[in-house]
Amino acid sequence: MAAAASPTVFLLMVNGQIESAQGLEEGISQITSKNRDAQQALVWNFPVDITFKSTNPYGWPQIVVSVYGPDLFGNDVVRGYGAVHVPFTPGSHRRTIPMFVPESTSRLQKFTSWLMGRRPEFTDPRVVAQGEGREVTTVRSQGFVTISFNVVTKDMKKLGYDVSPSEMQNPSIVSLTDGIHKY
Asked: Measured in whole angstroms, how far is the alpha carbon of residue 98 from the centre of its chain?
């Protein structure tokens, strides 16, 4: 019988949904309208299903969310960008992503971009995830997006990564067999 080969990569599977948004005016990622309740949330329940394959969790993958919506003239404009790191701990996770939009730096640029229907936006979504070069970008907070997802891993422990849920690593939790004594 041949011995099983050691894994050279690990897998991380994420499934869940982008649930809702608070504070955003509107979005077209999945068509919705504001609830009529006091929160006026945009509810999407947009499905997320991703599998990552890697050898190293450095710079861990992120989920980048871009929300667009029509302006006064019907042009699709950015309503918010945000990103969240994918945790590599198996289990259920819920994250609230702060959203932001780039702003023009002068009143003339703001007026011109509004008039032309061409507001500032990032052409590459990696800008949102990396942060490099963003120190010179003026942004404005634009609400929050809530995402919930489940994480399943494969072969991380075999590659030397301890990804036990934190409650399993807590020594104050008593095992069921701790109270059993043999006489």
From this structure: 10
pTM: 0.75
Nearest residue to 66 via CA among 49, 83, 48: 83
- In a structure prediction context, what are the per-residue pLDDT tens digits for the chain, which is 183 residues long? 555 678 889 999 999 998 888 865 444 456 666 666 666 677 788 888 999 898 888 777 888 898 887 777 887 888 899 999 998 889 999 999 999 999 888 899 888 887 877 888 888 878 888 877 667 788 889 899 999 999 999 998 888 888 776 554 443 333 344 444 333
User: Are 68 and 121 spatial neighbours (Cβ–Cβ below 8 Å)?
Assistant: no
10-22 and 139-154 strand pairing: antiparallel
For tokens 């029509």, name the residue: 70
Dihedral sign (CA 13, 11, 52, 137): positive
- CA pair distance 117, 119, nearest whole angstrom: 6
Is 101:140 a contact under the CB 8 Å cutoff? yes
